[in-house]
Fold these 4 entries.
Entry 1:
Amino acid sequence: DAKTTQPPSMDCAEGRAANLPCNHSTISGNEYVYWYRQIHSQGPQYIIHGLKNNETNEMASLIITEDRKSSTLILPHATLRDTAVYYCIVRVVQSQFYFGTGTSLTVIP
Amino acid sequence: GAGVSQSPSNKVTEKGKDVELRCDPISGHTALYWYRQSLGQGLEFLIYFQGNSAPDKSGLPSDRFSAERTGGSVSTLTIQRTQQEDSAVYLCASSLGSQGAGYTFGSGTRLTVV
């Protein structure tokens, strides 16, 4: 799987949009981009995934650049409960996930 | 069940003892993973089961670690002759295994070797 690069930490004001970047410059054509988050002392939680097109669900939006070398996870209205470590992962179908160190997002009141 | 269930939630064992950790995946999920997470660290892949295929054991750190999945459902991770460095949270995840499907993780088993 391709490696990903994420900033180690970010802050976001409560109620504002949180934009979490991820670089995956060596991504292959058959690799998807996944986002998970891990709230303290819990197992990771699936957020969203995509291949080429931008995706949106009830939790977040995923913006993937046209060359697929980077992506951004957007939490449109961050709440204190969104404070967590966010992992960006690229993988081919039916292979294991390799979790990096992620971005520690702190939502500030 | 509604989610991935792991047991026990906490386990304290003496160095040198064997332990078994159990994972009940979501019914019908064909893919099952084990990861571990040491304090303050990221997730480390251990083993992957997909349907009836041979498991991917490439992440197991030593031959003291083994896992099986009976009947394509419940999985047991066994650690023999536990060492203090085995202390971690052991996480199990399952998925339908369909193209691009996300994984659902359990809450983990916190293993402490004293």
Note: The two ends of chain A are 37 Å apart (CA to CA).
Entry 2:
Amino acid sequence: GESVGLHLPTLSVQEGDNSIINCAYSNSASDYFIWYKQESGKGPQFIIDIRSNMDKRQGQRVTVLLNKTVKHLSLQIAATQPGDSAVYFCAETGGGKLIFGQGTELSVKP
Amino acid sequence: DTGVSQNPRHKITKRGQNVTFRCDPISEHNRLYWYRQTLGQGPEFLTYFQNEAQLEKSRLLSDRFSAERPKGSFSTLEIQRTEQGDSAMYLCASSSDRAPQHFGDGTRLSIL
């Protein structure tokens, strides 16, 4: 069936380093992808999105890369800060509902 | 605050009772979604509305669950005869043609 999954369930990085969070998706018909950040006790917070007609999109300190050939999505966070500590989810959609993966917990060491 | 608002934030109830949650979306968003999230998992889709029309329901949404969006603005999610397995975080999101889904902070339901 359709699924979105993450390769690494936990990631620990040093403050100031760059972080890379990976995601695999299985539905080649999906045309829109979103990364969310979720802090404890809060709802998912939109970070950045990308459509299937793009390979890369940059935001403030974040970059999303999409490789449709291998159905892979990644989120790069530059100069990771303690405030970036959270669970990160990728989500895909082909219209309407979002399908989420399990999430990666990012821990930033000072 | 112009984000998605959910009430209550926490609900504790006894098994067998009925509960109702409310979601107020971002005002210019015409689509509204309900998701359920359990510990350590990503949110799972339950149902969604475009304006007042309920367009899709997940198989997760048993007969005990009902959602409404009577005027195309706020929405309610009711669970009848709650069971232990209903304990979860219930999340609401809204979107439009020009905006991706933005989530509220959810209602955490605990069944005693």
Note: DSSP finds no helices and eleven strands in chain A.
Entry 3:
Amino acid sequence: EPEVTQTPSHQVTQMGQEVILRCVPISNHLYFYWYRQILGQKVEFLVSFYNNEISEKSEIFDDQFSVERPDGSNFTLKIRSTKLEDSAMYFCASTRYRGYNEQFFGPGTRLTVL
Amino acid sequence: DQQVKQNSPSLSVQEGRISILNCDYTNSMFDYFLWYKKYPAEGPTFLISISSIKDKNEDGRFTVFLNKSAKHLSLHIVPSQPGDSAVYFCAASAPGTASKLTFGTGTRLQVTL
């Protein structure tokens, strides 16, 4: 069964450093998402991406964040200068169609900012 | 921002009995609702969904009920099994929002022997 994969599973970084989180969505999916979950809190939407551009972003997704689909398979989330409060689980999701369709989530990357 | 609320942080149910997980929402624009199950150190796994034109959707042991007037949905699991022990998230989306999901805070279900 096809699945969304994410690397690395755990990333530790120093405050102020740049990190890139990687995702490989399901191959025939067209819509891509990043969510995050701070420990003990709910899963929060960050950004959606379709046709090589951002469809929507939340207030969390400020200028420190960017997304890219550098090739036909990868989907990346870059945090330019990490802050302590960026420590969270980051989940990538994808879906083939917009609208009444479930999103398939990857296993997540745990980001720890020291 | 509490557009989707799950007021019970935890629930314990005996194996074989019914588990009922509840979810309330405030945004009347939501028209599609989903339940996800999550184990520790894993991503959310889709369970079942319902669109606002229905009031019930069933898939095996899982049934979701939607009461639009009360802005309330519930997930019924019958019969409950130990492998159902996980955190359950309710999520919702609205049209014209690129299908972003708004999640509740989750309910931890423990199914005991």
Note: DSSP finds no helices and eleven strands in chain A.
Entry 4:
Amino acid sequence: EVQLVESGGGLVKPGGSLRLSCAASGFTFSSLSMSWVRQAPGKGLEWVSSISSTTSYIYYADSAKGRFTISRDNAKNSLYLQMNSLTAGDTAVYYCVREAGGFVATGAFDVWGQGTMVTVSS
Amino acid sequence: QSVVTQPPSVSGTPGQTVTISCSGSRSNIGSNTVNWFLQFPGTAPKLLISSNNRRPSGVPDRFSGSKSGTSASLAISGLQSVDEADYFCAAWDDRVKGVVFGGGTKVTVL
């Protein structure tokens, strides 16, 4: 079964850091691009970052540039998102998503994890 | 404000066909393919349509996508109560170098 399982969310103070992880299974992780998408409570979807299969291409939303770092470990079938300098505006459910096909960041996210909640509050 | 615009809500009666629009610009929808997602409350989104009009395996053919110029549409024919959900469009944007989502459309079955 194709599956993505996020972990690492939680409550963090403004200015703090958090590292999200995503464990992939049921498919050849090393062959596909991956992304993070977030959703603030009661709001719509917001793309955060994408990384190609070999890490040759990495993209960030303006809201993430300079603060977030996406990475992957193909040997461990894992995707990561290091988040620094967090603000209340980063409070959201963060989804790990798989990109369909062989291209990076087309928006064709065909597999989604269940999401992990990040709450930034003092 | 989203770079890509969707109506906040659409409604229809069972059996009817409803259409959700997704309006963008030359840098996103005008130059790249459009994807559609559906999300039920409290659950993760699900890919409904990719590459403008491709249905992933398991998606009923009641759902169809189209694109013309800088706009795209999702049509739901034979509307059913189970179709009540939020629908989002998304596309790569060449200008911002990122994926842009529409603000989402809530479909209500009357």
Note: Chain B has a mean pLDDT of 96.
